[in-house]
Amino acid sequence: MKVDIKTVADKAGVSTATVSRVLRDYSGVKEKTRKKVLKVITDLNYEVNAVARSLRQKRTNTIGIIVGNVLSQFYSIIAKSVEDVAQKNGYNMILCNGDDDPQKELKYLKVLKS
Fold this sequence. Notes:
This is HTH lacI-type domain-containing protein. Keywords: DNA-binding, Transcription, Transcription regulation. Residues 3-57 form the HTH lacI-type domain. The protein is mainly α. The chain has two domains: 5-56, 434 Repressor (Amino-terminal Domain), CATH 1.10.260.40; 61-113, Response regulator (Rossmann fold, 3-Layer(aba) Sandwich). The protein is built from six helices and two strands. It has helices at residues 5-12, 16-23, 31-43, 50-57, 73-88, 102-113, and strands at 62-67, 92-97. Helix 5 links the parallel strand 1 and strand 2 (92-97). The longest helix has 16 residues, at 73-88. The protein starts with a helix and ends with a helix.
């Protein structure tokens, strides 16, 4: 069974808004309530649904990089550097290999824009 935020809220005896505040480490939640919610989260092995969160926030924290050819040392160094900085700032990176093919790169561009 997939555990969602409503299940956590029901088991902890709080609202979904309270669970959300605990997950975001909001300071306005009483310590006793926070501990109870965190225990239920642990007991149920709850994981935040990243897709649902990104839909609500209207952002994915994902950066798409299209490189001409991943076998090129030049592109590899750039991609690695971008990934390092992205991760330090809470972003993920998707790397697309264009294989030196402009049509393939355009396809990836359309996918990343959608």
